[in-house]
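Fig. S4 source data, part A: sequence.
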Amino acid sequence: MQVNHRLFEIVYLLLQKKKITAKELAEKFEVSTRTIYRDIETLSSANIPIYAMPGKDGGIGILEEFVLNKSILSEEEQNQILFALQSLEKMNVQTEKDVLEKMSTIFHKKVTDWIKIDFSNWSPSKENTFQIIKSAILNKQLIEFTYYNSTGEQTKRVVEPLQIWFKDKFWYVISYCRLKKDYRFFKLTRIKEIKCLEEHFEREIPNQPEIEKTFKNILLELEISKEMAFRVYDEFEMNEITKKADGNFIVKVEFPENEWVYSFILSFGEFIKVLSPEYAQNRVIEKLQKTLKNYS
């Protein structure tokens, strides 16, 4: 165990137990009592009010009124740390749960249960995908998987995973793709046969504008029937929506141009019309014609 980590653990234990012997601390951390006393001196020199009492009922303690971070973090900063840890703990990440318990003890705060993240509708294989990607990002390891795009095309990818995004109801992993030699978003539900490779990478996550400029966007003007009002208000921002006199909606929205966009448009069925651009109209017509051939 690193020294800094051990010092933190000692403070945490003292805040929990109020008093503990040097021998008990030495056994817990598998060091000598001499090392523990050196640690106590280090903590004392850092103005942490630790004291030692000799005798049968003696031991090492910390003043009850002590709060580790009062001179370091504001009330708002304390809350933000706890809220961030809690959001991770809600994803069943055990290490973050342990840290949350420790930090809430140190801050002398009861954590407000403000968030619920439920993966229960995921199959075990998809939850495993999430955990493999998370581990690969933290350890900077390449991952390999089979990927199915929106048209069903299957490719083998080796990527440098950089960040997991939750965007518009779906999970994605932003990666640098070795095949395409560029940044790509991969939808987690389309990733199959994933495995972590031994090879490591050094690339860091670029800022969001730099990622997004690698994708061509399309500015769509759509007319959506009033029967789809619930979807219009659910799926678009108010500044993108204009309501017509007949109750229908004009929506002007910008999306990354890919197969998902056309699948999204077609999901409105007969209740949508692409007004512009013309090439997007033609693409939707082409897809509808191909669909009709399935019934001819």
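Fig. S4 source data, part B ends here. The radius of gyration is 28 Å.
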